[in-house]
Structures are given as structure tokens and as C-alpha cells.
Amino acid sequence: MSETISRPFTFTKDGVFYFSRRIPKELKHHYSSPRIAYSLRTKSPKVAEARARKAAEQLDEYWYLLRSRDADPDAAGSFDGVQ
Predict the structure, then answer these.
(1) 50: closest CA among 37, 62, 41?
(2) How far is 74 from 1, CA to CA, in rounded Å?
(3) What's residue 1's pLDDT?
(4) What InterPro entries does this protein map onto (predicted)?
(5) If you write DSSP's letter for every residue of 24-41 in order, what string do you get?
(6) How many other CB atoms are found less than 10 A from the CB of residue 13?
(7) How far apart, in whole angstroms, are the C-alpha atoms of residue 51 and residue 42?
(8) CA distance 63 to 27
């Protein structure tokens, strides 16, 4: 019997790992879709886990900035170029 190990924020399709994350309710007005999903371009579980962790950290940071801007648009400044 094979073990299934859950990798946070990932799913597989045809053996390829994908990143997937739901958009928080308070930030949905910034997006056209309720979810972010894209290929991690790997079939390796370890590589997928590392890439998904990095992507989640980057999103958390970006969402923090969006929340800050939404709370006080004058204090947050410009977010051009932030991914």
C-alpha cells in the first residue's frame, strides 16, 4: 500500500504538482478568481514542497501589504512590481 503524504497548498494532475491557494474573503475584490492555482513544473514531491512553501510565503507577504494598503491607502505607498 502506498502512503499519501499531504503537501500543503499542492495537488497533482498527471503526476505534476500544482500550487493552489484560496483567496481570503477580505482580498477577493483584488482578484478575478476565488483561487490562485498554477503548475510548480515538477514531479518531485520534495521540490514541489519547497516551491509551494516559497510561493505561500510570498503570497502571505503580498497579502499583508494589500491588507495594509486597504486599511490606510496613504500610508502603504505603491505596490508596482510586487508579485
Answers:
(1) 41
(2) 57
(3) 40
(4) DUF6538 (IPR046668)
(5) PGGGGGG-SSSEEEEE--
(6) 9
(7) 9
(8) 8
Question: What is the phi/psi pair of residue 82, to 5°?
Answer: -85, 130
- 35-68 confidence digits (pLDDT tens): 999 999 999 999 999 999 999 999 999 999 999 9
Q: State the pLDDT at residue 2.
A: 45
Instruction: Please tell me whether residue 78 adopts helix, strand or coil conformation.
Output: coil
Buried b (16+ CB within 10 A) or exposed e, 59-82: beeebeebeebeeeeeeeeeeeee
Instruction: Give the C-alpha separation, 42 to 18, whole Å.
Output: 8
Cell of 22: 484560496
- For CA atoms 58, 60, 61, 66, give the dihedral sign: positive
